[in-house]
Structure formats: C-alpha cells, structure tokens
Known about the structure:
The chain has 145 residues and is mainly α. 76% of the residues lie in helices and 0% in strands.
Amino acid sequence: MGGSCSSEPAQAQSKAIDKQLAKDQQMEREVNKLLLLGAGECGKSTILKQVRIAHDEIWKNENKEMEKCRIYSNIIRGMVDLCNGVEQLHMVLSKEMEEHAATLKGVLKEKKDMDVLSEESVTALKDVLLDARIVLFATFLKIKI
C-alpha cells in the first residue's frame, strides 16, 4: 500500500510534464521558419529586416529608435557627400553653405544629434538641399532629391 501513495505524486508530475510537452509541441507547430540561402552580400539580411519590420510588432517597438537614428545618419551622410562632391568639382559654395556643410560634417564626426535633429541641423539640411549647386551636382549624378 505504501507504494501506491508514492506513485500518485509521480503520476501527477508525469501528467504535468506530458501536458507541458504537448503545449510546447503546439507552440512549435505555430512557428514559421524560413531558411535564407545565397551568396554573401545578396540581400539575405535585408530581406530578414524587411520581414521583421512588416510582421513583428515587438521588433518594431524595440528597434524604432535605432532605425530612426540610422535614417537621420544616412540623410546627413548623403548631404555631406553631396557637399564634398561639389567641392571636388571646384564649384564655389557660398559662405553660408560652407557653414552648413561644416555643421553637418561636425554632426557626423561627433556622432551626436542622431536621435533628435537640432534646429541647426534641420536648417542646414534644408538649406543645403535647396542650394542650386547641390541640386546641379545631384542632377549630374542622377540622384532624385
């Protein structure tokens, strides 16, 4: 009789384990897996990021600020590259444009101002974007701005 009492907790524990296994199997069936194959630099990571952005609510919330910083950085870097290209072609920039270009270069160099753009940075971006020489150079490169 003593053996039957000790088997009841063991049976209850066994049932709990079986229940957890069944629950885990059900969760595993609901997971969609995707295998991305391809040579290096063919866009596997880009596809994965796009799928996450489109379908993963948790990813959106966690990485929203990081992506915003990257977008601001890319915009500033693009404007700095345009300014550098104008200078390399020996096109003369106005004093104001040189100051704006220096402001944007400083932002990139110090890696500051990337989560929120300051008024100074926004003004510099707008003015550089509207400068005729920058537009001419971008047109030369066939960049739509």
